[in-house]
Write a structure and sequence with these properties.
heterodimer, A: 629 residues, mainly alpha, two-stranded antiparallel sheet, globular, B: Helix Hairpins
Chain lengths: 629, 103
Amino acid sequence: MQEILFLIPALPLMGFLILSLAGRHLSKQVIAVVGAGVVCIAAITTIWLGINFLQTPQENGAYTVTLWRWMNVANFSCSFSLRVDALSLVFLFVITFVGALIHIYSAGFMKQDRDYARFFASMNLFVCAMLILVMADNLVLLYLGWEGVGLCSYLLIGFWYETTANVQAANKAFYITRIGDTAMAIGLFLLFRELGTLDIPAIQNAAPEHFTKSSPLITSIALLLLAGGMGKSAQVPLQTWLPDAMAGPSPVSALIHAATMVTAGVYLVARMHAVFQLSPLAMNITATVGAVTLLIAGCSAMVQTDIKRILAYSTISQVGYMFLALGVGAWSAGVFHFFTHAFFKALLFLAAGAVIESLHHEHGIFKMGGLKNKLPIVFYTFLAGAAALAALPLVTAGFFSKDQILWYAWSANGGSPMLWFVALAGAFITAFYTTRLMLVVFWGDVKTHIGEPPGRLMTWPLIILAVLSIVAGFIEWPHNMLHVTLFSDVVQKVLPAVTEKEGVPSESIFQLIAVVVTLLGIYTGYLLYKKNASIVAKWKLVSALVGLRNFFFSGWRFDQFYHTLFVRPFVFVTSLNKQDVIDKIYAGIVSMFQWLNGIFSVSQNGSMRTYVISVLIGIIFILALQFFL
Amino acid sequence: MQSYSVLVVAAILFVLGLLGVLTRRNIIFILISIEIMLNAAGVAFVAAGARWGQPDGQVMFLFILAMAASEVSVGLALVMQVYHQHKTLDVSKLNNLKDDIDV
């Protein structure tokens, strides 16, 4: 079984090579078959592998295969080896399966685009890099995948490169994630200096013995790794790139900026849990970052008018939930939320893409409306995704995963009432903006001419993802309802189980509060955007509320803040040095020699008499020296 | 005492030749002035040889004589060529090798 492990990343890589080398000469049909086909085969391989893995558990809990020795320098050696354990398997499944659905969808979505082959080549390369990231046996290989997904994200955000704004968005995403990547690289250096190895299992074993608990060193390593995760996963304060990243095509947003790449930070923290557990401070900071992010991004999502930006802020906020769960020590709850979130957020992005495409590239939600009867399949699938996002109780996947996080935010060892309250507020906000989005886009009057409805290539992935958005939660029930814990049983072979505090009120009370708050959020949305729309119109006259709305709309003015704090001073310094200070030295030497040349060339006048006189003067000078010295 | 006065004569001759080189415009006169300067050097050598009773000074003068003869033959050939090409023997007009860059 281990032997076929290499196939999973190799297949998308093959697709990338075929499409990038020969894509120009292939017809669109062949490109679609190759591009989507390789990912589908990878998905089937993964499912087969997963079934085998669950049926016959391995001794060390993982499939490992060493493909070749990558580098060997002094006392550092690093091999190209893949390792799949339960945590990797969850990520593998989501990447290949959701990835395959998104590729199939893209075959329909991008069919008018002239760069069809380039699109699929980049997507395949992304899948390959992401698979290397989650299958890596050592952190160097993980870093290769980490940078690979960053590159593909850059290429795909700027896919329509003829528009300046898209290119700027791609650059911004690249720069900001780079900040996190640099921190992460420093963290890896520190780990290597201390432990002398970067193999993940070796780190898990050696870390608890080598480091004393909550020493400054381990805390700084954990925080540096966390910073890397925050950059990739768009957590405050490095979150500003994700809303702009929506410049890319919708399938890209679904695959990279919702389902997989932005959760790479979650994977990193979960993978390095042995390091994080040694530093309670780093864990607390992780939880706080998640809580702050989910609130900030949620508030921004409430007032956005671009359908994709709403979903982008919502993604930031949901990834914040995952970080919160990881931070309080509820490892499997965080990964479970990643699992369900991948389905419903990919679905929402794909459905939003279908809406945008049918409305001739209209992004503003207030120019949409009345799509309920015109695009029924998109409507029902979007409804399923939105219900899961809002965590509608008992019938959606989002409820099961988010409820777990809410419960552990208080009851887990690292939890606190404050974190719980923030998460609860986030749940209200999520329910509210989801309802707002649904009502504005699908109810009301038709405001834009509706073009062709999406074809079958696009609707089938939507339907499959909609079904998964509903049923994926049923594999893990809250403890007080049903004893079904399939997901955590598998994942907890790798991740430590959550330790709960004593003397916490019963779980049922928390669930009841969460349900009430969610329903309240939905009702508020219904009240403001359907039943009594005049309230919002009245609010628009109050300047304080408009100011608050603009503040949220701009993403809490983070962009302006960074602009004044970093961009302006940098531009100022560069403009000071526009003429290059160092260059002045060399320019000075040049002009000095030109000046001397001017003086001496006067003496070369071609008259023999002056030459003789100057020779004479020289002789007299030397003789004079003879006499006087 | 005797050699001292000969050296003074040699110095006067040399300065006269030098003044000729500096002031004359005609190349032939400049060549003649150079000959005078060479002979001044020769006189100085002979005087020095007489002063120490050595033959070296006279040997040196013979060398100078041979050198002066060859110098004059080459110099006169050059003067011929200059006159053929430029139709003048005025050195102040023969300054075409001068650099023409503006400074």
